[in-house]
Specification:
Elements (H helix, E strand, L loop, with lengths): L1 H25 L11 H16 L5 E5 L4 E4 L6 E2 L8 H5 L2 H27 L1
Antiparallel strand pairs: 1-2, 2-3
Helix pairs in contact: 2-4
Protein name: Putative salivary secreted protein
Length: 122
């Protein structure tokens, strides 16, 4: 009787443990978005520059639904430098998309340097 009662109490715990472990092994619970995310890290770098240069504190997130960069004080949003029909391409990060995002990041890095130099002159 005591073993049957103990087993019934352990079933939900065991079930939750199995779900958690399988989720971690599959990468669902351990990371969002899934690794690798080279394109997303390029978007985040641009987001940091954009948000700071526009006085909106710092980068908050890339919205996969609207495909816009959002800042902490979101007065303005920044879209990608090209149109995409499927946001999954950001996760897949094919070479053409990665190249476009790398160029975009370089331009925003240049803007940041120029803004700092212009502000320091005054």
């Amino acid at each position: 009787m005591a073993i049957a009662c103990y087993t019934k109490k352990m079933q939900p715990i065991l079930f939750a443990a199995v779900l958690t472990v399988s989720g971690i092994l599959m990468g669902v619970l351990s990371q969002y978005p899934p690794q690798p995310f080279e394109c997303l890290s390029l978007i985040e770098a641009v987001g940091h520059n954009f948000c700071q240069l526009t006085g909106q504190s710092d980068f908050l997130k890339f919205n996969f639904i609207t495909c816009l960069v959002e800042c902490r004080n979101d007065d303005f949003y920044l879209g990608l430098p090209f149109n995409i029909s499927n946001p999954d391409i950001i996760i897949e990060c094919p070479n053409g998309v990665k190249k476009n995002l790398t160029i975009w990041k370089s331009r925003w890095d240049e803007r940041r340097v120029k803004a700092i130099n212009d502000l320091c002159k005054k």
